[in-house]
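Suppose you are handed a protein chain with no further information: no name, no annotation, nothing but its sequence. What can you learn? This example shows the usual starting point.
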Amino acid sequence: MKKMRFLKIMISVLSALAFTTTAVAAELPKVTWKVQSCCPGSNPKFIKRLGLKRTPESIGVGSGDDLTQELSRAVSARTNGRFQLKHFAYNELFATTEAYEALEKGAIDFWFGPPWAFSGRNPFGHVSSSLPYSLTNHDQAYDIMFNSDFRKIARRAYAKNNIYYLCGSMGGADGITSTFPINSMEDLKGKKVRGGGIKGKVVKALGGIDVTISPAEIYSALERGMIDGLMMPFYVLGERGYFDRCKYVSKPAVFANWWVDWACNMDSWKKLPKEYQDILQEEADALWKWDLKVLLPHLENAVENEWSKKGVKYITLSQHNLDKIRQTVAPIWDEVGAMSPENAEVVNLYREYLKQK
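A reasonable first move is to predict its three-dimensional structure. Written in C-alpha cells, the prediction is:
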C-alpha cells in the first residue's frame, strides 16, 4: 500500500511539473532570430558518409553550418517552436566580411563566423580561436573554453562591438595543406598560401606569401596556380575537392583546434526572456562539447584514413623543425597580445595553461 501511495504522489508531482512547464512555455513570447552562417555547408553525400547525429532526433552533422542548423533545431524543440533561429546560408544575407558589422548593428541576430573575418573591426579576432602552435588536441580546447576565464575575456572584448559571445563552435585541426611537400620551414619560402588574419601572420613568419581569398575562390585559385596551399580544417579538404590539387598535409596542425564563433547581437540577447537565454546557452555548450569529444575526432580520423589510401601524404615535422617553427612564430603571440588588454589576457592565459601541461 505504501508503494502504491508513493507512486500516486510521484505521478501527481510529475503531472504538475509537466503542466507548469507547458503553461510557462505558452506564456513566453514567440521570437524569431535571423542567423547567418559564414561558412559553406557540407555536401549531403559527405554527411551521409561520415557525418554523425548527436541524438536520434538530431540532423546529420558534417560541418559547422550543419552544427548551427542542429542548434536551431534543438532550441526550437526545447521551446515548443516559440523561439526560432531562422537559418540563412553562407553569403545568403551578407558576405562573411560584412556579417560581423551586420551583427553589431542588429541586421542579423546571431552568427556562426570565423574570427579572422572581424579582426579588422576588433583585434580580438586574432586570438579568439587559439594561438599558433599552442594547443595540441581537442581536449585542451575544451579546457580553454569551459575550465578557464577565456569566455569571460571574450565577452568583454565582443561587448565593445555590441555583441554577446556565446561560445566556440565547430573548428577542427587547422593547418597547411599544399601542392608541395613541407619537411621544414624553408620549404614555405616564397610559396603563396591562403591565410588571412592570424593565419596570414603565420604564413608570412614562415617565409610564405599570405593570400586572402574567400572559400568559394579556393578551388579555382589552386587550379590557376594563384595559391600553392591553404590553411583550413583538415577534415573539410577532401569533401570540397581540394585534395584534387593539394596532395600534402603538414602535421602537426598550426592550430590543434581553430574554432569558429557563435555570437549574438547584444540588444537581441538582452531582449530574450531569461528562459530562452538559458536554453540557447545550454544547447550551444552541449553541442560544442559533443563536437570536441565525439564529432571532430571521428571526422578527422576518418578523412585521414580515407585520403591516405588515395595518395595524399600526411607529413609530420621532425621535433627539430617543429621547435624551429615555434620559435619563429613566438613573436606573433606578443604582437597580437599588444593589440588590446583582452588580447594580452588571452595570450597570458595560454602561456600559463601550457606551463601546466
